[in-house]
Amino acid sequence: MSKRGERAMVPDAEFRSYYGRPILKEPAWKTPDVPAYLFLGGLAGASASSAALADVTGRPALRRIGRLVAAGAASASVGALVHDLGVPTRFLNMLRVVKPTSPLSVGSWVLAPFSGLTAGVAAAELTGRLPRLARLAGLAAGALGPVMCTYTSVLLADTATPAWHEAYRELPFLFAGGALTSGAGATLLAAPVDQCAPARRMGWVGTGLELAASAVMERSHGITSEPYRTGRVGRLLRVGQGLTVAGGVLSALGRRRRWVSAVAGAAYLAGGACMRFGVFDAGRVSARDPKYVVVPQRERLNGSR
Amino acid sequence: MTQQDAHTPRMGFFTDTSVCIGCKACEVACKEWNAVPTKGMDLLGTSYDNTGGLGADTWRHVAFVEQPVPVPDAAGSAQGADGMRWLMASDVCKHCTHAACLDVCPTGALFRTEYGTVVVQEDVCNGCGYCVPACPYGVIERRESDGRAFKCTLCYDRLGEGLEPACAKACPTDSIQFGELDELRERADLRLANLLDAGESDARLYGRDPDDGVGGDGAFFLLLDEPEVYGLPPDPVVTTRDLPSMWKHAGVAALTVAAGVAASFLGRRS
Amino acid sequence: MAECHPVGFQWVMEAKARGATVIHVDPRFTRTSALADRHVPIRAGADIAFLGGLINHVLTGGLDFREYVVAYTNAGAVLREDFVDTEDLDGLFSGYDPDGRHYDTTSWQYEDAQAAPAAGDRDQWSQEDTESHGAESIKASAGGQRYGSGGAALANKPQIDETLQHPRCVYQVLKRHFARYTPELVEQVCGVPVADFLAVADAITRNSGRDRTTAWVYSVGWTQHTVGVQYIRCASILQTLLGNIGRPGGGILALRGHASIQGSTDIPTLFDLLPGYIPMPQAHQHEDLDAFVAADSGQTGFWGNMRSYAVSLLKAYWGDAATRQNDFCFDYLPRITGDHGTYQTVVDQIAGKVKGYFLTGENPAVGSANGRMQRLGMANLDWLVVRDLTLVESATFWRNAPEIETGELSTDRIGTEVFFLPAAAHTEKSGSFTNTQRLLQWHRKATEPAGDARSDLWFYFHLGRIVRDKLAGSTDERDRPVLDLAWDYPTEGALAEPSADAVLAEISGRDAAGRPLDAYTQLRDDGSTACGCWIYCGVYADGVNQADRRKSRTEQSWVAPEWGWAWPANRRIIYNRASADPDGNPWSERKRYVWWDAGQGRWLGADVPDFEPTKPPDYLPPEGATAQDALSGTDPFIMQTDGKAWLFAPAGLADGPFPAHYEPVESPVDNLVYGQRTNPVRESFPEPANRYHPFGTDVFPYVFTTYRLTEHHTAGGMSRALARLSELQPGMFCEVSPALAEERGLRHMEWATVVTARAAIEARVFVTERLRPLRIGDRVVHQVGLPYHWGVDGITTGDSANDLLAAVLDPNVHIQESKAATCDIRPGRRPRGPDLRALVASYRRRGRVDDEDRPEE
Ligand SMILES: Nc1nc2c(c(=O)[nH]1)N[C@H]1C(S)=C(S)[C@@H](COP(=O)(O)OP(=O)(O)OC[C@H]3O[C@@H](n4cnc5c(=O)[nH]c(N)nc54)[C@H](O)[C@@H]3O)O[C@H]1N2
Ligand SMILES: Nc1nc2c(c(=O)[nH]1)N[C@H]1C(S)=C(S)[C@@H](COP(=O)(O)OP(=O)(O)OC[C@H]3O[C@@H](n4cnc5c(=O)[nH]c(N)nc54)[C@H](O)[C@@H]3O)O[C@H]1N2
Ligand code: SF4
Ligand code: SF4
Ligand code: SF4
Ligand code: SF4
Ligand code: SF4
Ligand SMILES: [Mo]
After folding, report:
1. Under a CB-based contact definition with an 8 Å cutoff, are residues C720 and C797 in contact?
2. What is the pLDDT of residues B151-163, one digit of tens each?
3. Helix A171-190, helix A60-84: angle, nearest 10
4. Does C710 contact B51 at a Cβ distance shorter than 8 Å?
5. Alpha-carbon distance C659 to C231, whole Å?
6. Does A157 touch chain B (CB under 8 A)?
7. Domain ranges across chain C
8. Alpha-helix residue ranges (DSSP H) falling in A128-192
9. Is B67 helix (H, G, I), strand (E, B) or coil?
10. ipTM of predicted complex
11. Measured between CB atoms, does B112 come within 8 Å of chain A?
12. Is the pLDDT score of C502 beyond 50?
C-alpha cells in the first residue's frame, strides 16, 4: 500500500484511471460570462463600499464614481449570470428558496438587493433626487459590498473541482484583494488625482492581500496547486500579478500625473480580470485531468490508513 | 399522491460488478424509459465502451476494463502465460446521503424524495449549472441542447407505481439490484464475504460505508479493483462538508475588505 | 453466450453462484470468458480435435458411465467387416467416391442389419436423380436437419455385444478412432496447452456420472464450419459416453439465433423439409404416399408412424379435398429436384436461372457469406420482393451496393424490379416464439403496425386469397392445389389480420369432429385427424392456447411445466427416460427426474416422461413389432429406430459415421491428424465470384473469424437502424493482438484493410489482449476478429465482413463456413473506386487463386 502512497508523493505521480478520462465534470459555466461575473461582483462590491465611505467622509467625486461603477458593474454581473443560465427565463427561480448550503442562492439573495440598491443610488446620484434616501441606501449597499467581494470565492470553492475546493481558505482573500484593487482601479481611472489617496491605499491593501493569498494557494496544496502554477493558467496568473503590482507602483508614482494614475487603474482592473480568468480556468484544468482527483484522494486514503 | 409516510424506507441500488456481463441493457432500458436522447456516434476505442461516462445523456454507463492478470494455475501450469480479465461495471448516480448537487442547487430543483433518492425537477431547474462541478462523482451534467441539468432519477416515476427502475429490470444477471438500502447492504456484505473466501482478494464495496465522505451512497457497488480503475473517485467528499469553514473564511475576508476600505478612507486627506 | 444470449446467460450466472464451474472455449476472450472460471483460447476451426481429445481421455481412462453406455447407446453394436475407418484410409472413411466427392454409406451399416435401401430411403436421392443432377445433389439431399426431431431411419436393429469386447463393436472402433487425439495432439492442432486441456478434461469427467452432470452449450461458433455437424456429433459422443443426455443438468444445448429460429426449423423455411421434419418429397422417387412413407412405415421407433403425421398434415393443408381416394392430395405437394439451398440459388441467379426472389426478414447483402456474390445475384433478377422492417441493404443494393462504387454495377443497368413491402414487427402482431428449449411462448400484439406495415401472416394469407380469387373458375389441373387449399382463416380488426390463434389451433390439430387433439399419439393415417405439425400436436389442447400460459415458476414445480408449452407433448427434457437406470430407478437421488413406479405401473416424474407412460422397464418387443412397440423398456431414445443413442452413426450423415478433424477450407496450417486435409465432401461453389484460397499460399497468412456483438443484431436491419443501439457500437472494427499489430504495423483506432480473394474491406483497429496468437504445430497463428454487422444503410455504416468470405458449406445442413478463413491485413484505408478491385486482383495473382476448388494442394 505504501508503495502507491510514495508514488503519489512525487509531483508527476503515477496513478490509475479509466483511460485517462476525467472523473469530474468540468464546470458548465461559460467564459467570459462567469469569470466576468466574478470580476464585476468584486468591482461592484468594493466600489459600493468605497462610495459609502466617500459619502460619509464627504468625498463627492469618489462617491459619484463609486456609486456609478457599483451600479454598472452590479447590473452587468446580473447580466452575465443570466446570460450563463441554461434557461435564462427562469432566472427568478433563484429566488424560489433561500438555501444557506448554496452559495449561489446566498449570492442571489445578496446580489438581488445589492444590485437594486446600487441602481437606485446611482439613479439618485445622477438625478440628484432623494439624497437622504440615497445615502441610506448607499450605506446598505456599502455594507453588502464586502460580501459581494468574497462570496464568489465560496461559489467556486463549494464544488468538487479540486483546484477550487482545496483553495477554499485562500480564495476569499484572493478575491477580497482583487476586489479592492479593482475598486481602486476604477477610481484611479476616473477620479482626479488629488482625490485618489483612499483609492491608492485601497489598491495597496488589495495588492498585498492578493499576493499573499496567491502565494499560499500556489504552494500549499501539493499537486492540486499545480494548475495555478503551470501552463496557460500559470502564465495568465503571473501576468495578472504583474499587472497588479504595476498598478500599485504606478499609483504611487502617479500622485501628480493623471495619466499615470489612470494607467495604474487600468493595470489594476486588467490584473483583477486576469486573476479571475486564471482561477476559473485552473478549476477547469483540474477537473479535466483525473490525476487531480485520484492522487490527492489516494494520499488521503493512504495517509489515514 | 405518491407522498408516503415518513417511514418509507430508503431505496437504492447495489450494483454487483462481479456478475456484470457488459450487455448494456441497463443503458438502453434507461434511455428508452426516460426518453434520454442519444449521445451520438462516437467510436472511442476504449474497449467496448463507446459511451465514455455518465452525463446529461447517459444516466447509466457501463465501463469496460481490460487487464492482464496472471493465469489461474491449471494443475501445474508453469507456462507463465499471462491471462487477462475484463472488468465490466455499470455506473449510475450515487444518490448520496450528503448530496453536493442537491446542497448547492439554488432553485430547489434538486430535491430528496420520500425514497431518499435525489431527483431534478425539470420544470424548476434554471440551468445555473452549479450542481455540475459540485458532484464529486462527475455525474450530473447540463444538456447543451436544452440548458437544464439531467441525471438518473432512480426512476422516480416507476417507484411511485411500485415498479423497479428500468435499468434493474433489464439487467439479466442481477448485477443491478434494487431494494431497501439496509437490506442491500446486508446482501452486499454477504456477497463480499463469499468472494473474499473464493480468493477474489481485490473485491471491495464502494460507497457502502455510511461514514465515508458523502455519508454513504444510495447506489453503491461491489468492485474488483480500485475505484479509479473504473473512473470512480477513490475517496469522494461532499464539498459542503467544508462549507461552514468556507463561509467563515469568506466572512473574515469580507471583514478584511471592509477594514481595508475603511482604513483607506480614514487616512489623512491628501 | 453472454454476448449473444445475455438473457439466458443469467442462468449460467445463477448456476455459477450455486457452485457450477463455467468453462469457455473460444478463439477470443469475450464477455462470456470474462465471467467464466476458465477461458480456453482455441484456434478457430479446431474443436473436433479438442473434443476428440476429451473423448480419448474418457475412453483411455475408463471414465465413461459404463452402465449408461451399455444400456442406452449403440456401443455394443457390431459393425460390418467392410467398414474401414480413417485410421486406415488416412482421413477418409470407406465408401468414398473421389469423382463424385461423396460417400456410399453402405459399409457404415451394422453387421447383418439390412442397409436402408436407396430407393425410398429418407436420406438418398433416387438413382435417376443422381444421374441427372450429378454428385452435388447427393450431398445436398443428405439434409441432416431432417433429423431435428429424431434420428435417421435404419431398417434393422443391430447385433449387440454387451461386453463391448468385440473388435468390431462400436465401442472398440470408437476407441481406436480417437486414440490418436492425445493431449499433445490437441496442443498441436488447437493451440491449447496440455495443462489447460487436462484441466478441462478433469472438470467435465469429475462432473459427470450418477450424481453429477455436465452440459455443453454451443451456438454458431460450432456450426458454421464445413464440419459443423460433426462438431455437434463429437459433443454428442462425449456426452453420451459420460451419461449426460436425457438427464437434468446435462445435454448439448444449441443456443439458437433469431427469436423463433427453432420454430422456423420445426415448421420450416427450409427447401427440403415439411413441418415436423417430414422430408419434402422428391420428383420421380415419391410417386405416391405409400412410396413416400415406405422408408419409415413398418419401422421401429416413433418415426414408424410417419404415415399418420403425413396424412394429418395433408388434411390440414387441403381439408375436405384430401381423401383416401386421392391419396390425401399427396400429388399436390411440390417435389424437389435438387439443391435449392440459398447459396445454390444465388449461383443460379448469377447464371440467370432464377428470375424472382422473395426476401422475408433476411438481408443476404450483408448477412450471407460472400456479400458481393449475393448482390451480383440480386442484380441479375427480374424481380425481387423484400419484406422487412426497414430499408435494408438487400432492398437498396441497386443504388448503393459497394459494386456501384467500384463500377462493376451501375444503377441504370440493373434490371431487377425491387418491391419493398414494410413488415410489422413482433410487437405489432400476435404469435408464438419457439425457443432453444423447444418452448413455445405466445406474444400478443402491443400496438397496431404503423403505416403500410403488415404482418407476414397478413401478407401470405391475403396473397393466397388474391391468387385464389384470380384463379377462381379455372379448370386447369395445375391450379387445383391452390384452389383446393383449406384457406379459410378468420380475420380480425380494421386491417383484416388473420387470427394467429386460429393458425396455432390448426397446427395443433383436430379430429374429424373438429375437437382439438391432445397429443400426437392421437394422429391417424385414415384422414380422421388434421394436424399442421405433428410435433406441435397438443399446443392447443382443450381449445386452450397452451403457449400462452404464464404461471410463475414460484407457483409450480421447479420444472415449471405450466409456463408456455414445449414440443413434444410439453416435455421439457427429451429422452428423459435416460435419467433413470434400466430398472427405472433414478441414477441418484440428486439427479432424480423421471422414474418407474411399479405400484402404479406408470412412469412418474417432475417432467412429462418421454416414454410410453405404462411401458414397464422390463418390456421386450414381441417378434414383428413395429413403430414404438418395437422398442424395449430400456430404449430411451424413442425417435431412433433402435431406441439407442448413437456413438456411431450408421446413417444420416454425409461426411462420416464418426467425426474426424479436418482443417477449414482456408487454413494456414496443414492437417496434423490425417493426410486428408479438409472435409472431402464439403459443398463448394467454384464460381468466379467465389474463389477459394489455395492451401500453402503465404499471401493470406492470417486466420479470421466473424462474430456478433451484443449491441448489434446480425445483418444490422434491427440495430443499425436504431440510434440507441448504434451509438453503443458506432463503427466497424477488427480485433488484433498486440503481436499481430506489431508484425503488420497496425495502430489502435487507426484504419486497417483486410483482404481476401473475394474482397477488401476496411475497419478501425482495436489492439487488444483479448486476441492471442496461438502456437499451432511449429508456427504461430495470428487470428483477426471481425464483427459482421455492418453495411451501407442505417445510422452507423461500415464495410461488411461477409464480403471477405467465400461460400463453402457443410454437406449435411448446407451451413456456410463463416467462422474460419484466411486473410491478409494491412494498415490504412482500402482503395476507393475501381482501385479496390485492382487490389483484390493483385492479391489473387500473388496468391495463385484460380477458379478451382483445390484445397488438397
Ligand atoms: N446481441 C446479439 N444476439 C444475438 C445475435 C446478434 O446478432 N446479436 N444473433 C442471434 C443469432 S441469429 C445467432 S445464430 C446466435 C449466435 O450466437 P453465437 O454463436 O454466440 O454468436 P457468434 O458471435 O457468431 O459466435 C460465437 C463465438 O464463436 C467463436 N468461434 C469462432 N470460431 C470458433 C471455433 O472454431 N470454435 C469455437 N469454440 N468458437 C469459435 C467466436 O469467437 C464467437 O465468440 O446469436 C443470436 N443472438
Ligand atoms: N460472417 C458471418 N455471417 C453470418 C453469420 C456469422 O456468424 N458470420 N451468422 C449467420 C446467422 S447464424 C444468421 S441467422 C444470419 C442472419 O442473416 P439475415 O437473416 O440475413 O440477417 P438479419 O439482419 O437477421 O435479417 C433479418 C431481417 O428481418 C427483419 N425482420 C424482423 N422482424 C421481422 C418480421 O416480423 N417480418 C419480416 N418480414 N421481417 C422482419 C429485420 O429487420 C432484419 O432486417 O447471418 C448469417 N451470416
Ligand atoms: S452522485 Fe452526484 S449527482 Fe448523484 S446524488 Fe451524489 S452528488 Fe448528486
Ligand atoms: S442546474 Fe438546475 S439542478 Fe443544477 S443546480 Fe442549477 S437549478 Fe439546480
Ligand atoms: S434508475 Fe432509472 S433513471 Fe436511473 S439509471 Fe436506472 S433506469 Fe435510468
Ligand atoms: S444490464 Fe446488468 S449485466 Fe448488462 S451491462 Fe448493465 S449491469 Fe451489466
Ligand atoms: S434480444 Fe430477446 S432473445 Fe435476445 S437475449 Fe434479449 S430477450 Fe433474449
Ligand atoms: Mo443465426
Report:
1. yes
2. 999 999 999 999 9
3. 130
4. no
5. 7
6. yes
7. 342-432+447-479, 683-846
8. 131-157, 162-166, 171-190
9. strand
10. 0.93
11. no
12. yes
